[in-house]
Amino acid sequence: MTIEQFQQTIDETYGERDAQRGLERTFMWLVEEVGELARALRTESHERKVEEFSDVLAWLTTTASLAGVEMSEAAARFAEGCPKCGETPCECGRRR
Amino acid sequence: MTIEQFQQTIDETYGERDAQRGLERTFMWLVEEVGELARALRTESHERKVEEFSDVLAWLTTTASLAGVEMSEAAARFAEGCPKCGETPCECGRRR
Questions:
Q1: Which ipTM did the prediction report?
Q2: Is the CB of residue A30 less than 8 Å from the CB of residue A56?
Q3: Do A7 and A65 form a contact (C-beta atoms < 8 A)?
Q4: Residues of chain A contacting residue B9, judged by C-beta atoms under 8 Å apart
Q5: pLDDT less than 70: residues of chain B
Q6: Count of CB atoms situated within 10 Å of the CB of A8
Q7: Which of A95, A71, A72 is nearest to A83 (CA)?
Q8: Which of A15, B11, B39, B89 could form a disulfide bond with A11, CB atoms 3.0-4.6 angstroms apart?
């Protein structure tokens, strides 16, 4: 699946409700899911980890849609290696 | 770009250093980037928002690699609509 297809799928599945909720409250869900991911990483099964990465990705993507950002454009920043130093592997530690 | 290609690119660019840092410390970077995204969403330009979504996606992906999770498998959970209710658009509000 491409990143563009994933964003389109998420928009079709959740876009209307997420738009009603608004950007700020949707971002709060994203943060909640990051917390659930922390717990899954510490203690839970591989299947639960997959679910939590999936949820964070979905909430990140829907937040991007509400902010007018294409995740495929965001991902493309890394297509030619580290966007900071331009190297693969990165040589700069990507500190901004 | 596919989600699988993105994860491979991130692994090639950052995988060795991130593995040396370890899962827990890499997760802390992810959380730091979520904070930077919050600030960008509040106050900053479209270009900065794209950068911050990009950074969160990259750190989420490298964390997944360290946890042995394929982001393409994670994304596939949403391929047939809401994984909770199975509908597109979702009818359940995706509360777990």
A1: 0.96
A2: yes
A3: yes
A4: 78-79, 88
A5: 95-96
A6: 16
A7: A95
A8: A15
